[in-house]
Automatic annotation (TrEMBL):
CDD domains: GTB_UDP-GlcNAc_2-Epimerase. SUPFAM superfamilies: UDP-Glycosyltransferase/glycogen phosphorylase (SSF53756). It catalyses: UDP-N-acetyl-alpha-D-glucosamine = UDP-N-acetyl-alpha-D-mannosamine. This is UDP-N-acetylglucosamine 2-epimerase (non-hydrolyzing). InterPro entries: UDP_GlcNAc_Epimerase_2_dom, WecB-like. It comes from Methylobacterium oryzihabitans. The keyword Lyase does not apply. Belongs to the UDP-N-acetylglucosamine 2-epimerase family. Residues 22-366 form the UDP-N-acetylglucosamine 2-epimerase domain.
Length: 401
């Protein structure tokens, strides 16, 4: 079975790394990796962490890239590769431009598609933007839907996705996190070296770790987030650590507003193991990241989500994450409460982890093998038949009325 994994950004690479590792060690599978290079430095850092040497690199990234240009470059590059190496399956992950453009390219070549992390929904096409649209588009063309949770499965079913094309697997990001967290916290020379490297962290004060990059917050939203971070950093006994995303629309306002403030340490994006280590050192995490919302609860770190919506409702319902929006006062109030109220803190730091058990990649690869190779039109016609029972009751009701 020939399987082509396509990814291009930091989070896709982290979440696909365990899948690629599993494919590599599975007999009967010929696995190839195509990176689009939608991210360059942040992708390369993950590739080197996990020892992935891509078979193909489309090198699509441009400074401050536009979404249509990016889509077009990914589709053209992936299409050429599909024409040359006809895989049985293309695997895409999540909701980035890379994943949707690669999914569409596969669909147009009639190559079957496995969608890793399928079924996340906010229900609001404007938030997160453009990711909510991206993931819905991918769901339309995917053949196998790897839903991380039962809620994601329910969202796919509600859209008419064939039940037997969905598998609840857990999130592959938790596979990566559990392995990495174990490695970075194991006592020994590596831990000692890392502690020395981050020796500037003051263990006497509370550490607030911040990340942010969402396109829908560019402009006013980021201004309010920065004001909140500045206000927190002014409080005694608090240090803010903020690895700043490489997007120029993030770096501009963040460095202008927060650069030079005594309580704020602005640093470059961390390599994944260093970031996991930093999460273990944090008392509180403020983020708009999807992946960090899933990871922080595993490490028993309360996470405040600086967005208006979340597709990770599982964490909010479990009480381990809170949606605070981008209002300055609301962010500061929620953070101060957690820093000052030990009971409120304990209630969020329970370790409840709704997103997986660390075996998602194994389930995905087993499922792919069970599909076998073979011509796509057969699989597509089966899927069409599966849709019929979902459609028929509505039509029948209409007719009898
Ligand atoms: C992208 C994804 C978003 C995901 C995020 C993870 C889309 C539309 N957006 O957003 O879903 O949550 O990645 O971080 O797919 N840059 C660099 N070097 C890098 C990475 C980025 O210089 O390693 C700069 C470039 O100027 C690039 C810009 O950041 O043009 C934006 O990158 P892009 O991937 O388009 O958007 P992100 O905001 O990173
Ligand atoms: N991450 C990292 N270094 C950093 C910040 C985040 O390795 O400096 C990791 C983090 O642990 C998570 C992923 O990057 O696994 C999240 O990526 P991002 O927030 O860019 O994207 P999203 O998850 O929002 O799509």
């Amino acid at each position: 079975m020939k399987i082509l994994s396509v990814f291009g950004t930091r989070p896709e690479a982290i979440k696909m790394a365990p899948v690629v590792a599993r494919l590599r060690e599975t007999p009967g599978v010929t696995s190839r990796v195509c990176v689009t290079g939608q991210h360059r430095q942040m992708l390369d850092s993950v590739l080197s962490t996990f020892g992935i040497v891509p078979d193909h690199d489309l090198a699509v990234m441009r400074p401050d890239q536009g979404l249509s240009d990016l889509f077009a470059r990914v589709m053209t590059g992936v299409d050429a590769l599909l024409a040359e190496w006809r895989p049985d399956y293309v695997l895409v992950q999540g909701d980035t431009a890379t994943s949707t453009a690669a999914g569409l390219a596969a669909f147009f070549r009639k190559v079957a598609i496995g969608h890793v992390e399928a079924g996340l929904r906010t229900g609001d096409i404007a938030s997160p933007w453009p990711e909510e649209a991206n993931r819905r588009l991918t769901a339309v063309v995917a053949d196998r839907h790897y839903a991380p949770t039962a809620r994601a499965r329910a969202a796919l079913l509600a859209e008419g996705t064939a039940p037997d094309s969905i598998l609840v697997t857990g999130n592959t990001g938790i596979d990566a996190l559990l392995r990495t967290a174990e490695a970075v916290t194991a006592p020994g020379p590596a831990l000692a070296a890392r502690e020395a490297r981050f020796g500037w962290l003051d263990p006497q004060v509370r550490t607030v770790l911040v990340t942010g990059h969402r396109r829908e917050s560019f402009g006013a939203g980021f201004g309010r987030i920065c004001d909140a971070v500045a206000a927190l950093a002014e409080r005694p006994g608090v240090q803010v650590v903020y690895p700043v995303h490489l997007n120029p629309n993030v770096r501009g306002p963040v460095f202008a507003r927060l650069g030079g403030l005594p309580g704020v340490r602005l640093i470059e994006p961390l390599d994944y193991p260093d970031f996991v280590y930093m999460m273990t050192r944090a008392d509180l995490i403020l983020t708009d990241s999807g992946g960090v919302q899933e990871e922080a609860p595993v490490l028993r770190k309360p996470v405040l989500v600086m967005r208006d919506t979340s597709e990770r409702a599982e964490a909010i319902e479990a009480g381990v994450a809170r949606l605070v929006g981008t209002d300055t006062a609301a962010i500061v109030a929620a953070a101060v409460r957690l820093l000052e109220d030990a009971a409120a803190y304990r209630a969020m730091a329970t370790g409840a982890s709704p997103f997986g058990d660390g075996h998602a990649s194994a389930r995905i690869v087993a499922d792919l093998l069970a599909q076998g190779g073979g011509p796509l039109p057969l699989r597509r016609s089966i899927k069409t038949r599966d849709f019929v029972p979902a459609i028929r009751p509505v039509a029948a009701a209409g007719l009898s009325a």
